[in-house]
Every structure is written in C-alpha cells, then in structure tokens.
Amino acid sequence: MDASTKVLTFGEIMMRLSPPDHLRLEQATSFDARYGGAEANTALSLAYQGDNAAYVSIVPANRIGDCALRSLAMYGVDTSRVVRSGDRLGTYYFEIGASQRGNGCVYDRKYSAINLARHSDLEWGRILEGVGIFYFSGVTPAISDEMALACKEALAAARERGITTVCDVNYRGKMWSPEKSQQVMTGLLPLVDIVIANDEDAPAGLGVTCVSGSLSNGIEEREDYVEMARQICAGYGCKKVASVVRDIQSVERSQWMGMLYDAESGEHWFSPAHDVHVLEGVAAGDAFNAGLLHGLLHGYEPQHVIDYAIAASILKLTIRGDSNLVTEAEIEGVAKSGGGTRVAR
C-alpha cells in the first residue's frame, strides 16, 4: 500500500432523520436531515483526511439521490462508479438518547434502490479499475441475498486483481439473524485480508464465543479480543484483525481503546484507553475504520496505526451526524497526546 492507493467502499447510503434537542420520535414535529451509511461514512472520512477515496452503491436517479451523493462528493469522494437506478433512497430515523436511555434507530430501507437491485447491476471488472483497497461492511450483504452475492463477486474479482480486501463485520440485529449472518459472513471472510470486529460483532455475526459480547467490560476483557483475532485469522486466513474495545457506562460516558493483531507475526498492539464524553455515538466505528486504513496507507508502524485509528474514532464521538469531519492533523494531535487519560486495570 501507499498513500496514493484508491480505496473503494461499497454499501448503502441513506437519508438520516433525527428529532432535534434529544426529543423522542413520538415528540418530534420536525427532523434534521443528513445522509450517511457505514461505507459512505468511511469513504468521506478518508477523503477528509486527504486520501484517495471512492464509493459505489445503487442510488435512485432523482433529486434525493443527487443530494445523497453530493454530501460525499463535496468532501472529495469519487462517486463516478455509483449505479443510478431504482426509485427510492432508504431512510433511517436516529433518536439521540441520554444517560441510561440508549440511542434509538428505526430503519425504513425496505424496497430501496439497492434493496431491490440485482447483483448483475454491478460490473465489478469496470468498478474495480484503478482500485487498490476494496472495503465493505456486514451491513451490505444483510441488505438482500442479491447484495450478499454482489459482495462475494466483488471480493473474488478483487482477489484476482491483487486488491487488498477489508471487511467490518458490523453486525446489525435489525437486519438479519445471527444464524443468517454467520452463514453468509463465513462464506465471505476467506476472501478478506483485514477484518474489523468488536464485542457485538464477533459473537452474533461470526459465532466467535471467546468474547462476552458485553459493552461494559471490554477493556477488562481485552486479552479475549486477542484470542478472537487469532481465531478469525486461523479460521479464515485473514492477515490482520482490528477492534474497538469499550467500557460503556451511559450514552454520554465511556472509555475507548483500540486493538490491532497481525497474523504473520502473531503480535498485537493496544492503544491507550481514552476516557470520553460522548456527544453522539453513531458512526464512530466507521471513523475508526477510516483511521485504520489511513495509517496502513501511509505506512505507519503498528502502534501508530492503532493509536491513530482510535483517535479518529473518539473525535467522531464529539461530532453530530454521520460524518467525521476532522483532519489528519487533528487526529494526530489526539493520537500523540496519549489520550489524556489511561485507564489502569
């Protein structure tokens, strides 16, 4: 990899509608409209850091679709590979929680353009031209069986061309069952070089049982993440595994740490733990993934890679909306600070 490598992300972009001022959906009389989706968020974050990012999806050829793509292109994401067809852009309603009332998400994405698309709508030989890294998350194959097949075809085409493949397992229980996820993802991961998985993803999405799936004790159980990474690499032939490791006390307060594992050397690296006040938690994982890829693209040493990735993630916790609008210099400032707070365990 080098800094000029083009990273292509594949997934669904949606309109996000949120009630203002921490209101519940039942109280809302107006909604704040933004655009986002796991892979779109990652592409935007990479572009904002100055990297060569492209995005592919299936988006309706109407004004709403134009708005969605403009939200990426305005920050430098290449959207020229996007297929314009279908009638509907998916929507999701995001309710910001408080204290012990968690964030809420209601999907309205059935019958969207990408949900109704066929795998053959995506010509991977053309789409992958000039690409050095192909990235998707477990959200994309969960959209439909057709998109699961599209992911497999993309990975096979990337492997034939020597393109590095990256997958965030990103399990979504509102989109498919653990059984379905494990059936599909275990068929995809043998074609993936770098896997990103956390305390929620590995048990439900992959059936890996060495991590508890708890969101409140991740840092205490961090050695279990190393074992999780070993099992993923041994089981699927992946080269690296990265994770966000968290202790979450409430919507606004948590501690975040990153972990990177390298299968060839058998070594692993943890970032410092950051004690954070959370403004909004959505898309922090996507920001972590973009930070991870940025570090790998620029040839950072492994400790620097994971320090940078978690710094990108916790900065996203301070920003409203899906987009991590922070620069490389801002991320480096947090990474080099050592996080301010180290949690001693």
Q: What do these coordinates show?
A:
The chain has 345 residues and is α/β, with parallel strands linked by helices. The protein contains twelve helices and 15 strands. The strands form three sheets. Strands 1, 4, 9, 10, 11, 12, 13, 14 and 15 form a nine-stranded mixed beta sheet that branches. It has a four-stranded mixed beta sheet with strand order 3-2-7-8. Strand 7 and strand 8 (104-108) form a beta hairpin. Mean pLDDT is 93; it is low at 341-345.
Considering the chains and any ligands shown, give keywords for the structure:
single chain, 345 residues, alpha/beta, 9-stranded mixed β-sheet, 4-stranded mixed β-sheet, 15 strands, 35% helix, globular, disordered C terminus
What does the secondary structure layout of this molecule look like, with pairings?
Blueprint: E1 6-10, E2 14-18, E3 32-36, H1 38-48, E4 52-56, E5 58-59, H2 63-73, E6 83-84, E7 91-95, E8 104-108, H3 113-116, H4 124-127, E9 133-137, H5 139-143, H6 145-160, E10 164-168, H7 178-188, E11 194-196, H8 201-206, H9 222-236, E12 240-248, E13 253-262, E14 268-270, E15 274-277, H10 284-297, H11 302-316, H12 328-336
Parallel strand pairs: 1-4, 1-9, 2-7, 5-6, 9-10, 10-11, 11-12
Antiparallel strand pairs: 2-3, 7-8, 12-13, 13-14, 13-15
Helix pairs in contact: 1-10, 10-11, 11-12
Would you report the number of β strands? 15
Oligomeric state: single chain
Task: From the alpha carbons, calculate the radius of gyration and give it in angstroms.
Answer: 19 Å
Which of globular, elongated, flat, extended, rod-shaped describes the shape? globular
The residue-averaged pLDDT reads 93
Major pleated sheet? 9 strands, mixed
Kindly name the structural category.
Answer: alpha/beta
Total helices: the number is 12
Question: SSE order in H/E notation?
Answer: EEEHEEHEEEHHEHHEHEHHEEEEHHH
| Strand coverage percent | 15-25%
Helix content: 25-40%
Distance between the termini: 36 Å
Low-confidence sequence ranges: 341-345
